[in-house]
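Internal ticket #5521
Category: modeling
Description: The requester needs a full-assembly model to guide mutagenesis choices. All entity lines are attached below as received. Residue total reported by intake: 531.
Assigned to: D.W.
Attached entities:
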Amino acid sequence: MKRVTPIISGLALAGTIVPSLAYLFGNTALEQAKLWMLVSTALWFISVPFWMGREAPGD
Amino acid sequence: MADEHHDPVNEFEREPVPGKAQLGFKSFVGQYAGEHTAGTELMIGPLFVASGVSAFSLIFGLLAGNLLAVLSWRFLTAPIATRARLTLYYQLEKICGRNLVTLYNLANGVMFCFLAGAMVTVSATAVGVWFHFPMPGLNDLYPNSVGWVVAVLVVGALIAVVAAYGYSFVARIANYAAPWMVLVFIAFGLVGFKEFLVATHTQVHSLRDVWTLCKTSIWKGGAPLAGQVKFTFWHIMFFAWFCNMAMHIGMSDLSVFRYARKSWHAVASGAGMYLGHFLAWIAASILYALQLQTNPHNTAVLPGPLANSACGIAGLLCVIVAGWTTANPTIYRAGLAFQAVFPKSSRYKVTLVTGMIAAVAGMFPAIAMRLLDFVALYGMILMPMGAVVFVDFWLAKKLKFQPYYAEHSGVRFNWAAGLAWLLTIGFCLWLIDVFGHSSMWFVSLPGWFVAALLYIVLSKLCQKKALQPATA
């Protein structure tokens, strides 16, 4: 699972930005792009807890 | 804006960070990129447009101002942080004494409360898209509908409860959300730009065409909207430089960079500046410019509807998550600052009350709609203590007065530091009074030198006076 989920997360991130690029270059409609972004958002938040757990510095 | 996504590590609060706990460059890149892509970026970009900024002023002002901010972290904050390796609060306590630090904490806490209030406001604008209640306009100072009040109070209360009881949960969500949020912000800009092409019936074939569209349609310059100050290149540059003044010149990020192995790691702050304070501001400003292009009478700066028009539900989620995840640690930190003032009260209760104060503040759109002014004041109020730390660390011995005076003398209120702080704020306010509202983004620069000079002169006077009975 830990090997697969980072790949899914990567695809989800791509799915977040690619629809807006596709819309910019006239390859998709805006409503279609919004739907893909929503699906990608859901995928990102479902997959990311499986592998992301880094600690950050702070005070 | 600077908002901490990370879990505050309550380690090494009263001792230097040891070698084994120090961190490499990469740790700071992610941290700064996340921290500076906050909900408030969705207000700042549009407010630039409302201030009548031109394309040249915006792009080059941001490039220059953000570079100055990174250099400030690199050459002012980090060298002290990696030598002393102490939190700002502990270092200030050694210089200023316990009582003065408490006063500083109070000022810090109040500022954090208002900042969190603006973030609650941002999140509540997303709720308005679903529930269709009237939302505040650009020049509104007071809440303008019952729906707005209820939405802000509900969002604020939820954030307050989570900040008090579930801090680490939201900190984790914030870490998860950071890369996704950056991309949604970029998507705002891409979709907004395409919509501009459609709205203006323009076709672009080269970068020159893009620049022409930017100059003539997106950031046209000219007069600001009613009630706004005209922003030039200099306003943008100083705003970008000083909007995190409390963190770099004000030395708040000593607490972060005390973990850095090398002082050059502070250039990692560039990730936050050029993602959050460049790309995100530009993207948000494009959406607002598009709104004005479509309907010049609709001047309201409402991140929720702006995000919804560009990216739909994903955009709305971005507004809520950006506001929530950044308000959460801000409220938590305000609570910590207030708890230092009232040490006997429980952290949970203080954080809960602080969160509710932020929620009430968030009801008043004046803070969010006047965010450019508030951010300038925020930096100005906390900046003088950065000058005190700088002088105390680098110049005190050379100028023959005692560094860490409070620690050495046992005083609980170092009048030299206290007066330098308060007189500098007075000096900056006087400059604003003399030169007008438009000067408020610049006065902190002379203010820093005044604070440094005052601290040197007053330290020499106070310490000489304190030593007199012993030497007589």
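Resolution: model delivered.
Comment from assignee: Residues 148 and 235 of chain B are 32 Å apart (CA to CA).
Ticket closed.
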